[in-house]
Amino acid sequence: xxxxxxxSIHPAAIVEDGARLGPGCVVHAxxxxxxxxxxxxxxxxxxxxxxxxxxxxxKFDPATESFRHYRITLEATSNIRxxxxxxxxxxxxxxxxxxxxxxxxxxxxxxxxGQVERYKIEIPYTNPYDVEAAPDDSxxxxxxxxxxxxxxxxxxxxxxxxxTRTDIPKLAVTRDGAVWFAPRNAxxxxxxxxxxxxxxxxxxxxxxxxxxxxxDNPRNRKARHQWPVTPVKGERKLxxxxxxxxxxxxxxxxxxxxxxxxxxxxxxxxxxxxxxxxHE
Length: 280
Prior knowledge:
Layout: E1 2-3, E2 8-9, E3 14-15, E4 20-21, E5 26-27, E6 32-33, E7 38-39, E8 44-45, E9 50-51, E10 84-85, E11 91-95, E12 105-109, E13 116-120, E14 130-133, E15 139-143, E16 146-151, E17 156-161, E18 171-173, E19 179-181, H1 186-190, E20 197-199, H2 218-224, H3 246-252, E21 266-267, E22 271-274, E23 277-279
Parallel strand pairs: 1-4, 2-5, 3-6, 4-7, 5-8, 6-9
Antiparallel strand pairs: 10-11, 11-12, 12-13, 14-15, 15-16, 16-17, 18-19, 19-20, 21-22, 22-23
């Protein structure tokens, strides 16, 4: 592994030999950076994320173990979460970019030519999570407090404020044009729990409240795939419980000594804070 100056790697994170981290990168607890990954300056890898894992791109070459990389922004820090692919095989991504959260943008990547086009999201402190292509190849973007619609032909955004202050990790577009999303932080800001929410851009076109994916939606293609049959053997097997905090995870990968002897302030019930995690 090679890393730049001021790089921060949590003791319960795994960065494999061969990975390259630029200056100012932060790798949080339980994150994994695989050996082929190359991170630019100031990239933040959030808890539990896997960078450079099993290939999700058909352009990965198993013979040479190489990926083709598409650099969409030089701004630091940047955070790229969920991608979308339209019917023309164009890849769409959103990133909040820059330290001040002032340059959040939607990007279009042509995988054939490598050309990248940028469309700035004119919302201060925008924090986009998800992008999904609709059946007409327009794009829906989930960001804090808003759902956005982008028309590639006119290069125009339409902004839909949601009903509570929240981030929105995922959205889905139905075959009838409704947009379903789940406000995650409603309880944090609004005093009530999360909710499943449907946005109908044109209420006069509502013919049903049922939600179905378009026939060509990738989720439908997965549903139609003939997966191998799992034989039923009449046996019951219980999976072992997952680790509950970064120190337990560190112990599972032989790094327990990095948590021992670093107990923090005591908490109620004999709990202590150690390495950013509460444990007995």
